[in-house]
Every structure is written in C-alpha cells, then in structure tokens.
Amino acid sequence: MKRVSKRDKAFQPAELKPYSVEILFAIELIVAIVLLTFISGCGVPSDSKLREKFFHERSNFVELVRMSNEDEHVSLIMPNFTYLDTDASWPRKDIGFSEERWNEYRRMFRKLGINGGLARRTDYTPSTVFIAAYASGGVLASSDKGYVYSPRPLSPLVSSLDVFPRERYLNGKGHAIEFEQLGDGWYLYREEY
Questions:
Q1: What is the mean pLDDT of the chain?
Q2: pTM
C-alpha cells in the first residue's frame, strides 16, 4: 500500500458531481460572452458623440483635410509614424513633411480626439480622407470608427453605425464598411476587419 503524504492529499482534485461539470462549463461560457461583449464595445464612440464633436469642431476638421490635401503624398499620418504613397517602411529619414508640420497634426489629433490618425486610401478617390476617432486591433482584426471627407458620394449608407455590421461583415468575408451621411461631403464611418 502506497503512503500518501498530507501535502499530496492537499493537491488532489476534489471529486466533482456530474452536474458540477455542467455548471462550471455554463459559468465559464457566460463569463467569456460577457468579456467578449465588453471588449468589443469598449471605447467605441457613439454616433451622437461623433456628430456632436464634428458639428462643434467642424472648422478644425476642414483644416485637417486641407492640411492632408497639401501633404497628399503622405498616405497615412499617425502620431508616431507616417506612410508615404511610395514608401511604407518605418523608420525612415523622409517622414513626408517637417517635424513642425507633424506636430501640427498631433495637436489637431489631440484637440479632435483622434486616436487612429488620418489616411488617404487607394481603395477610394485620392481626395477621400479617413480620420479615425477610434481604432482598435491590429493585423488580424481591427475596428475603426470616425469621419470621412469625400467629394464623391460614398456607400453603403446606413442610419446608424452604433450596431456592429454583422451581416455585411459575414457577407464580406471578414470585412465591412458603412457610412452615415453628415452633409457637404462629410460622413461618419465604421469599418471592421
């Protein structure tokens, strides 16, 4: 007969009744769902909050687009890096403009509550400017919400961006973008990868 020390007894799992495993699984599932729901919605600004900010600071948004149009060869401007339309490597000596100009962008981003920078994307007209008020994620999955200026109409238009575009996301094989019109070439947008 093998002797079991007191220490060994302390590390032996307690015997679970059959229904205990089911209860533990249900609790784990509920916790996981609550965490995923919290994480996926955490920090995403509401449409009303973005509209209020836009109409209150409209002249500053117009100024930001004007600046970007002057620096049209810079396709992405973030607080800590830039991409040129010919070079997305980082770090690099030519950031696309002076350090003073970059600081102007950073000041505007802070003032307007922009945490995802500004982008001139190749999948839209060159004069379309995306300004991400909210950006989360990375290469495998990301979520952006913010403002767009486009001289051409954008689609698909929706009445609210507060709800995750699940159907469009699934039909788009893991990508969805939707727009809510603000007027005069301005839109709110939400994009999910």
A1: 84
A2: 0.76
